[in-house]
């Protein structure tokens, strides 16, 4: 499927998977709106940054209105990438941190997605990508809150695709294993390493799904590093 000149929104674009996805979309001729709190160091005629805190509904609404006006069209691609994890056992989790994870990973995804669906229905096409995690499929000790949010992303994705599939809209949920991003900067005992997947690998998966036949729908995509501990002797 041809995606050149389509309008895409990617959240959480300052680094990692979000930035790699923006670059991959630009390489395909897509017009990209980046929503985030921090502007990436990226200059491209087809890239437009809009300051947005996905935790705040009014901020999302403003970014959406600015995007539609600036790019003069309807959004055909949404990549819900913004997310974070705060390590703690459930009994030790700060209430504020629990709320922060849900406000970003779940509520932010809801705000962004709800706004783009009407336009996609008018286009009679669209593709929504929700970046979950292996933690959306399995339990992770010490990351109960994060796993809860990513399980929620899975449930939203599975239900939503059934709601919008008859309008020509795809919903794809991606479950990455360990990926070399700054996600691990605040996780005790975990550091990004060359044995992890690259953000560019996740971005390439998104492009592959986007370019598939309109009647071919990737519902769930689980990806993991082949040798997470490196080559064994």
CATH class: Alpha Beta
Order of helices and strands: EHEEHEHEHEHE
- The amount of helix comes to 25-40%
Query: How many DSSP-defined strands?
Result: 7
Shape: globular
CATH architectural designation: 3-Layer(aba) Sandwich
**Structural class based on helices, strands and sheet pairing:** alpha/beta
Terminus-to-terminus distance: 43 Å
Beta content comes to 15-25%
Summed over residues and divided by their number, the pLDDT gives a mean of 94
For the biggest β-sheet, the strand order reads: 3-2-1-4-5-6-7
Low-confidence stretches: none
Biggest β-sheet, characterized? 7 strands, parallel
* Count of separate structural domains: 1
CATH H level: which superfamily? NAD(P)-binding Rossmann-like Domain
The helix count comes to 5
Multimeric organization: single chain
CATH topology: Rossmann fold
Give a verbal description of the structure:
By secondary structure, the chain is of the alpha/beta class. The chain has a single domain, classed as Rossmann fold. 38% of the residues lie in helices and 16% in strands. The protein is built from 5 helices and 7 strands; from the N terminus they run βαββαβαβαβαβ. The chain has helices spanning 16-27, 57-71, 95-123, 144-164, 199-210; strands spanning 7-11, 31-36, 47-51, 77-80, 126-131, 169-176, 220-223. The chain has a 7-stranded parallel sheet with strand order 3-2-1-4-5-6-7, with helices on both faces. α4 links the parallel β5 (126-131) and β6 (169-176). The chain is globular. The model has no long low-confidence stretch (mean pLDDT 94).
């Amino acid at each position: 499927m041809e995606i050149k000149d389509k309008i895409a929104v990617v959240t959480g674009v300052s680094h990692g998977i979000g930035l790699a996805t923006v670059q991959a979309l630009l390489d395909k001729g897509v017009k990209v709106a980046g929503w985030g709190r921090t502007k990436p160091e990226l200059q491209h005629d087809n890239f437009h940054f809009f300051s947005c805190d996905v935790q705040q509904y009014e901020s999302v609404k403003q970014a959406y209105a600015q995007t539609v006006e600036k790019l003069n069209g309807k959004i055909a691609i949404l990549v819900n990438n913004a997310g974070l994890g705060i390590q703690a056992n459930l009994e030790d989790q700060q209430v504020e941190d629990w709320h922060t994870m849900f406000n970003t990973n779940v509520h932010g995804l809801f705000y962004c997605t709800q706004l783009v669906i009407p336009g996609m229905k008018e286009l009679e096409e669209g593709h929504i990508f929700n970046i979950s995690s292996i933690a959306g499929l399995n339990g992770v000790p010490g990351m109960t809150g994060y796993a809860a949010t990513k399980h929620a992303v899975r449930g939203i994705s599975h239900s939503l695709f059934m709601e919008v599939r008859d309008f020509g809209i795809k919903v794809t949920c991606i479950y990455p294993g360990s990926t070399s991003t700054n996600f691990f900067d605040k996780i005790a005992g975990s550091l990004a390493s060359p044995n992890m997947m690259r953000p560019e690998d996740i971005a390439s998966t998104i492009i592959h799904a986007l370019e598939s036949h309109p009647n071919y729908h990737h519902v769930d995509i689980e990806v993991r590093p082949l040798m997470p501990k490196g080559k064994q002797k």
